[in-house]
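Technical annex B. To support the medicinal chemistry partners, we prepared a structural model of the target in complex with magnesium ion, based solely on the information shown next.
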Amino acid sequence: MSLKLNVDPTRIPQHIAIIMDGNGRWAQEQGQDRLFGHFHGVQSVRDIVEGCSEIGVKYLTLYAFSTENWDRPEKEVTGLMELLVETIRKEVPILNKNNICMHAIGELTMLPPSARLALQEAIDMTAENTGLNLIIALSYSSRWELVHAVKKIAMDVKAGTMNPENINQETLQQYLSTSQFPDPELMIRTSGEYRISNFLLYQLAYAELYFTQTRWPEFRKENLYEAIVDFQNRERRFGKTSEQLGDALTKN
Ligand code: IPE
Ligand code: IPE
Ligand code: MG
């Protein structure tokens, strides 16, 4: 029986963020090269994008490559970039068929020109779609994003278009690369690692964190439903007490 039946369709998180981890170890466990794991990870991406789209998730952010990942062996970085270009090109018609709008966040100027081009084409070709927003975090790190935001704010102050007195949480939010998206409510990390690895540090302030041992190449819709059911069983208090939440519920 599918766990989908246990998911409450009226309380689907509108934004899910995923650290897709464990490709390398999964491949090594099969006696294969790390790139074999990345290659198989693409099928999980397809399955999870489809799964999120089907149940009405509005935003899905996938951490595909971190700023720190540039320091991996050259062979792995080159292989990953080639896989990225090939996958994006192949997936655009499927994204369009499923009404999915693609976005990218990160220091994209660091990507090889072929990858940047493929990415920009996919973004442009899916821009009119109104279903799931698929946000790929590429060459992304949260500290890079925060430094970038602070620099832009400082420049606006210097140019006289911003008054430092008026800077508040919304201002900072507007300068982040995620300014168009609501904060994730659920963050999933696969492969049994219990850390954030420089991912959406500001935006995850009140996200529910879900960690699973499953390696990314084996993560499928059923694992996604399991994470959502877990999320739906939690009480999100946002600093308040349980009793206050009870009061709020009866008042509604
Ligand atoms: C995640 O899998 C994919 C990327 C970081 C690009 P890893 O490549 O980190 O796999 P492990 O963690 O070494 O198993
Ligand atoms: C985080 O995974 C980045 C991505 C999944 C893209 P890593 O495998 O790079 O993270 P660490 O090094 O284990 O923290
Ligand atoms: Mg890893």
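Notes passed to the chemistry partners:
Residues 4 and 57 are 14 Å apart (CA to CA).
The pocket of IPE (ligand 1) is lined by residues 20-25, 65, 69, 80, 191 (CB under 6 Å).
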